[in-house]
Structure formats: C-alpha cells, structure tokens
Amino acid sequence: MDLNPAGPIVTPRDAATLVLVRNASSGVEVFCVERHKKSAFMGGAIVFPGGKLDPKDRDPAWRDLCNAPREAPFAPDEETSRALAIAACRETLEEAAMLPTVGPPLLHEDLLALRAQLASGAESLLSWLARAGTKLDLGSLIPWSRWVTPTAETRRYDTRFFLAIAGETQQGAHDDHETTASFWATPRDLLARFDAGTVELMPPTHRTLSLLAGAAHAEDAALLAQSACKDPICPKLVPQKATQNETETDTLALVLPGDPEHEISTARVPGPSRFVLRGARWLPENAPRPARAG
After folding, report:
1. Spatial CA neighbour of 175 closest among 114, 244, 237
2. What is the pLDDT of residue 40?
3. Domains in the chain, start-ordered, CATH in brackets?
4. pTM over 0.90
5. Which of 47, 86, 144, 264 is geometrically suited to a Cys-Cys bond with 225, CB 3.0 to 4.6 A?
6. What is the DSSP track for the chain?
7. Whole-angstrom Cα distance, residue 163 to residue 147?
8. How far is residue 19's CA from residue 50's CA, in Å, rounded to a whole number?
9. Is 213 exposed, middle or buried (0-12, 13-18, 19+ CB in 10 A)?
10. What is the pLDDT of residue 6?
11. Strands 46-47, 27-35: parallel, antiparallel or unpaired by DSSP?
12. Cα(190)–Cα(192) distance, rounded to whole angstroms?
C-alpha cells in the first residue's frame, strides 16, 4: 500500500471483483491470481480477478448482449449495476480466462483464444459475443460486498465484490502480464499460508477468505453473499501502539466500521474490527482494551 495520510484525498475509481468458487473433494475452493510483483498496486499479493470499470462497460450495446444483473444495492442506478457486473466478467476473462455466459459453458481452449484476440486488439468482447450469438450471464453474479480504499491511500478504488459458482469445465489461467500465477485453493489453506508468511493477502481478500472458510459447499457461499451487508466498508488509518519484548513502539491500524476508532459504530462485516501493521503485514486483530485508570 502507498499510504500518505498528509496528502490530498483522492476520489476512488469504480472497480469490480469476481470471487469464483466451486465444490471440490477438499471442500469449497476459490480461484485466486497473484499480481505481478512490479505492479504499482498490490504488487505480489494474492487477489481475486478484477479491475477498474472501463467507460466501454457502459456502452448501450451491452443491453442486447447480457441478461439482467441481480439487484445491486451498492450501485446508484441500473446502468451502473450492469456496468459493474460487466467489468467483473471482462476482467475475469482478461486475468483468469473464465467468463460467465448464458447456455453451455465455453471451453477452456476457446477462452484462451478469445483472451488472446482481445489482448491483441483484433476483436472486442462486444463484437465477439454478437458474432458468437451468446450473452454474458450477469444474473449468475451475486453482489456480496463493497470495499473502498482508505482515504490515506494515493490510489483509491470503490470495489464491488461479486460471487459466482464456477462450472465444472472452468479451469482458469493467469495472463502472465498483470498476474503471474493462478490456482484453486480452499480458503482455509490460503489463510494458513498467510499465517505462515508464504503468501500476501490484503485486508479485503483476507476477510473474504475468512468468511468463505465457514462455507461447507459453494451453495453455502452463495447464501453468504446474498445475506451480506452491502454498505461500503472504508477502513480508516489510525496510529496504534505495539509492544514487543516489553518495548512499546508505534505502528498503524486500518480500522473497520464497528471499531471504537471508526466513525461508523455498526459493524458491516463479521470478524476482527481492525488490521494492524506488524512488520510489513496487515494482521487481523480486535481493538486493544482501554488501559485501566490508576
């Protein structure tokens, strides 16, 4: 993260992320990609496929090339709701070679070929869908949560998280450009790897995985997304004291709604109320107890 608390507050850009889950013998699995280590934003972190809203995602031509999205309480109008779902699908194709469409699922080889065509500029997703006679299945995307980058961050995004159940033929593959690795894994495995220090997870990803870890099946994950609060979660950067080897030092914390130091008193997502910077990692913790008087 590129934090600058003293700098001007940047207006966040609209973005969308798609959390793809599937049933496996080991339990619910989620598809993740690793961002390029040289990326200016979240370099090296394990994330879900997603990215910024493109003005072309609002093209009126999309109305005939997708089914209706689910009602999204985190979008101000129908046009934005559709555009965000389209952005989630488009970015997932670009970063993960998967695409929710109406009808029989597309083959993995066809998705790889389509992604290459789009990357070369030989075709647009709009024109390809029209020529193929298929539509984006926006109705399969379940609105889940809305995370807004802290005001202290120099790059800010207002990211809407969607969840979808992947089909059996959907394998997924990173693009070797923005993302350098990809895999299916259980949320518990990813959280264990984070605890061991072998992967990097940013707070929204960590909290999403923590919630998914309680789902026994992909259908349970879908119910979880449907019932979740859709109000924006904007962490607030605050100073915090840290004690190590009986020495008190200064660190930082990102506090969530419901934390005593956040202006919003009601929690909007279950779990610890803050992420504390320990070394170079943001770890989930509850607010420290107030010191006793005397």
Report:
1. 114
2. 46
3. 13-233 (3.90.79.10), 236-285 (no CATH)
4. yes
5. 144
6. --B-TTSPPPPPEEEEEEEEEEEETTEEEEEEEEE-TT-TTTTT-EE-SEEEPPGGGG-GGGGGSB-PPPP-TTSSSHHHHHHHHHHHHHHHHHHHS---BSSSPPPHHHHHHHHHHHHHTS--HHHHHHHHT--B-GGG-EEEEEEE--TTBSS-EEEEEEEEEPPTT------SSSEEEEEEE-HHHHHHHHHTTSS---HHHHHHHHHHTT-SSHHHHHHHHHHS--SEE--EEEEEEEEETTEEEEEEEEEPTTSTTSS--S-SSSS-SEEEEETTEEEEEPPPPPPPP-
7. 14
8. 9
9. middle
10. 75
11. antiparallel
12. 5
Q: Which two tokens stand for residue 270?
A: 């279950």
Amino acid found at 260: P
Distance between CA atoms of residues 169 and 173, nearest Å: 13
Structural tokens at position 158: 């207002």
What's the 3-state SS for 70-94? Answer: CCCCCCCCHHHHHHHHHHHHHHHHH
Per-residue pLDDT of the chain (294 residues; tens, 9 = 90+): 677 777 788 999 999 999 999 999 888 999 999 986 555 445 579 999 999 999 999 999 999 999 999 998 999 999 999 999 999 999 999 999 999 999 988 999 999 999 999 999 988 999 999 999 999 999 999 999 999 999 999 899 999 999 999 987 788 999 888 788 999 999 999 999 999 999 999 999 999 999 999 999 999 999 999 999 999 999 999 999 866 656 678 899 999 999 999 999 999 999 999 999 998 899 999 998 775 555
Which amino acid, residue 177?
H
Token pair recorded at residue 22: 């599937």
Q: Which two tokens stand for residue 123?
A: 């075709």
Q: Determine the residue type at 147.
A: W
Burial class (CB in 10 A: 0-12, 13-18, 19+), 23: middle
